């Protein structure tokens, strides 16, 4: 039997050897605890143009020119699936993001996932019903209901979060009390409280195979570059006319808008 101190030395040596091995290894770790950053970029566009707040002019399928002054939407409950078909769900507390066209940093959603090769991305556009009804202490950060004024993403009268908010100006819109011709689309509804049937929570799944899978590794930052085409909110199964529906908030018609905008996300490429 070796004296105690030698046992300790050989144990330490073994430990060092293992640690050294791991650093040399470039293949994804089998250890599911070895997490790395995955970035998901939401690049807002309007058809073939980059979206420019206030100054850009775009035309919808109804032939109405318009400009966008505000665009914000919630992305939550992020999941990725690897090439072996194994799904990883980001811990829910770390899985709520507000993408805002006015805030460049917000357009990069960053999550920690185990190292691996991912070919499918899934997220909720909006906020799930469970979180919407949680105690206020569980709804901090971007979920804080007492947000700003124009950019607030919560209906104080208990119908929960606005999942998707787009506002702007168009000649086709009626003159509002402020003297502007504005359109306002505030879409939400989690199937609770005052109108239990209205549920616009949408789960979006994106196949990354054609545009490039995400190779998540420590020491690098894979970025899934998505395009979000706001024209798809207007043009789809229902072509939205600003003249006919300049303001859509908590109403049955909001279903048609949500059904359109779930088509707006398209994977362009991945930077690994
Ligand atoms: Cu890119």
Any key phrases for this structure?
single chain; 272 residues; mainly beta; eleven-stranded mixed beta sheet; five-stranded mixed beta sheet; globular; binds copper (II) ion
Walk me through the topology:
Layout: H1 4-24, E1 35-46, E2 49-50, E3 58-59, E4 65-82, E5 87-89, E6 96-100, E7 108-114, E8 116-125, H2 129-132, E9 154-155, E10 160-170, E11 182-188, E12 202-207, E13 214-216, E14 222-229, H3 231-234, E15 247-248, H4 254-261, E16 265-271
Parallel strand pairs: 1-14, 11-15
Antiparallel strand pairs: 1-2, 1-7, 3-4, 4-5, 4-6, 4-8, 4-10, 8-12, 8-13, 9-10, 10-11, 14-16
Bound molecules: copper (II) ion (CU).
- Which ligands appear in the coordinates? copper (II) ion
Kindly state the mean pLDDT as a whole number? 88
Distance between the ends: 51 Å
Order of helices and strands: HEEEEEEEEHEEEEEEHEHE
**CA radius of gyration:** 23 Å
Largest sheet: 11 strands, mixed
Tell me what portion of residues adopts beta-strand conformation: 35-45%
The tally of strands reads: 16
Low-confidence stretches: 11-25
* Percent helix range: 10-25%
Structural class: mainly beta
How many structurally independent domains? 1
Tally of separate helices: 4
